[in-house]
Amino acid sequence: MISVSLVVRPIYSLAFSLAFVMSYAVPRAFAQLPASAPSTSTAPSTSSTTATANVQPAVSVPEQPPAGPSFKPTALGSFVERLAFDGWNGAPLYLWQPVAGAVVPQLPESDGLKATILQEFGLKSFTRKSLQRGQRYIHIDVYEFANNDGAFAAYSFLRRGATTVVLRGDATSEDDDSISFVQGKTFISIYGTSGDDEESKDVIRRCATKISKGIVESGAPPYILSTMPQLEFLHGSEKIVMGPASARRFCPAPYLNSLDFKQFKLACVADYQMREPVKERVKLLLVDYGGNAKAAAASYQSYISALCQSRDENPDLRLAQDSNQFRNGATFTEIQLHGSRIFMVTGARKKYSAELLLRQIR
Using CA atoms, how far apart are residues 261 and 112, in angstroms rounded to an integer? Predict the structure, then answer.
């Protein structure tokens, strides 16, 4: 038997072993490395930079009206812009005025309902002047309206405070860090962001005095206030209504959309504190149609029909009466038609409270 021995030189054996290891280990090592793509490595960086650039302007201008560049300060706005006080830095004016396609006011710190109500009041211009000293701010808000009624309506809606220390304008209210007043067609609200700050309050007082002297016109409260029943009337609770949004905001009665707020002249809501025979607080809504008895009657009938329909009730008997009372949960609502005026009492826990209040109507 012949045996054959294969002798491999050591150098060839070593070369074979290295080749085997390299063929196995190197591909695995490269497979674990992140893929290198020079042609696309700058793309993420570019898109990231672009995204950041796109976001920044949206964050930096949240309180600028959409058509801000076209707005110019009114005469009073320019006067307010020139106000300056030692140690206080003034910010650029925030302006809003109605333009085509943007009638609803674009106001800082405003919800949609507030803006809609101010639109009903006839807001023509809004100007804000802000003063800063360190972490303290003072805002001077100037609302200019089409008429005196709109300005007084805004005053009754947005005023701060309940006391009158120094009379300014046609009516004024103030508290520790704010002063609100109405003068002619303008409502002014000046307030600070820091409480118990005598320095800020002094600047607020000086602002109010200067602006009041800078407004040459004056006005009178809306006529409708004098037509409201005066017994048990809670002064300071009155709210002027100039459309359906303000009616729903100030009066809790159901189905107010059924009333006609297109042909009416003016409306008002106020609180009354009934004392006898039971103490309770109720609200009275007066809608005046300015002598148009036909429009008032149609509005009254529309409201009665809507309320009866919601209760599956035949409205014929109620429509034949000028006075109707409904139970609304735990309270009573009473509505009466008096010529060209509609009176509605809501929130009465006792049915005779509404009747006693409406006896004052002549």
Answer: 20
Task: Give the pairing type, strands 280-288 and 178-183.
Answer: unpaired
Q: Quick one: pLDDT band at residue 101, thresholds 50, 70, 90?
A: low
Distance CA 119, CA 306 (A): 27
Does residue 7 surpass a pLDDT of 60?
Answer: no
**Residue recorded with tokens 């109620």:** 318
pLDDT at residue 322 tops 70: yes
Widest distance between CA atoms in the chain: 144
Task: Find the range with the poorest average confidence among 251-255, 260-264, 294-298.
Answer: 251-255
Query: How far is 192 from 160, CA to CA, in rounded Å?
Result: 11
At residue 165, φ and ψ (nearest 5 deg) are -85, -50
95 phi and psi angles, rounded to 5 deg: -125, 145
List Cβ neighbours of 69 (8 Å cut-off, separation of 6 or more). none
Question: Which of 97, 175, 94 lies closest to 139, judged by CA?
Answer: 94
d(CA 307, CA 315): 9
Backbone angles phi, psi at 310, to 5 degrees: -70, -20
- Please report how many Cα atoms fall inside a 13 Å half-sphere around the Cα of residue 35, on the Cβ side: 4
Q: From the centroid of its chain, how far is CA 191?
A: 17
pLDDT in tens, 139-152: 999 999 999 999 99
Distance CA 328, CA 321 (A): 19
**Tokens found for residue 359:** 């006896």
Q: Dihedral of the CA atoms 55, 61, 67, 72 (nearest 10)?
A: -160
Give the pLDDT band (50/70/90) at residue 102.
Answer: low
pLDDT of residue 196: 72
For the entire predicted model, the pTM comes to: 0.77
Find the length of the chain: 362
SS3 186: strand
Strands 266-274 and 280-288: antiparallel
Residue owning tokens 């812009």: 81
Which residues have C-beta within 8 Å of that of residue 151, sequence separation ≥ 6?
121, 143, 144, 145, 182, 183, 184, 185, 186, 187, 219
